[in-house]
Amino acid sequence: MNQAFLDYYRCPERFANFTPTAKRSADSGFFLFGKDVLCYGSNSAAFPAAAVRPNMYDALANVALGGASLQLPFDPTEITDNLRRERYLRNSHNGSAKISVEQALSGAYRVLRPALPFGLRRHLQKLYLRGRQEQRFPRWPVDRTVEDIVERLFVLALKAHAVDRIPFIWFWPEGAPSCAILTHDVETLRGRNFCSRLMDLDDSAGIKSSFQIVPEQRYSIPPSFLDSLRKRGFEINVHDINHDGRLFADQTVFLRRAEAINRYAKEFDAIGFRSGGLYRNPEWLDALEFSYDMSIPNVAHHPPLLHR
């Protein structure tokens, strides 16, 4: 129960003394952890909701302080894993019919996209994103659901230990309040040929970015091209395998492609991965041998339904 909190804050273990109030139900669904903090998973006090709706059960009412222990009706590690791996997917919209329609539309757009004029693509994207700011979950443009959960736990841990601060390892070096990451998806021959100019632009701003390289079909990748990125201090990542939008369409095909992707990771000396179009199935990503993945955003995210 304590691991997600400890991984997030890197604080002394004694401050993450969470225990269950009772055995949790087998059913997973949505519930609250305070007025504005949403959870997805099981709990021991009430049946969770199948979809996000008004008047959901609030688990905060069943949190108990027992000495330095915090008794919870849910497992924070399970809840945060469910959110990060998008296990809420089937319950976050209105049934399988909508899933199949959206998947069909997404597939059609993916096929037609290369032939569509840029202006038309932008117009279709605006239509698709219309009303997204009113969506309660995931939040647009930035979803902080996991952060909200661990921050609420932090406040409760302060109360349980009767302290006003908890020592933890700060998130960024030298006390910086935040960080920014700059990446370039190199999806065409024209893009590959522009990389030298992009490096010049990045260097002019004092930024070292990462370049996501598509290993197959899109363009040739001579060793001299990869060497030019490395010698100038830029990072190389693997971007899908051929960017056809089918990486996660079938598990057998995915596992076969994953073997090739892992070979390219060693060849490119790459430790990061990003899928084409951010299509994804988080439960399969363990087959990829990378230090980190960039296929699951919480900023300006696409609805996860379109990524299975």
Short description:
This protein is α/β, with parallel strands linked by helices. The chain contains nine helices and ten strands.
Please tell me about this protein's structure.
It is globular and about 65 Å long. The chain contains 9 helices and 10 strands. It folds into 3 domains: 108 residues, no CATH class; 41 residues, no CATH class; 128 residues, Alpha-Beta Barrel (TIM Barrel). Strands 6-7-8-9-10 form a 5-stranded parallel sheet. It has a 3-stranded mixed sheet with strand order 1-5-4, covered by helices on one side. Helix 2 packs antiparallel against helix 5. Helices cover 34% and strands 12% of the residues. It is an alpha/beta fold. It starts with a helix and ends in a 15-residue tail after the last strand. Helix 9 links the parallel strand 8 and strand 9. The longest helix is centred in the last third of the chain and has 18 residues.
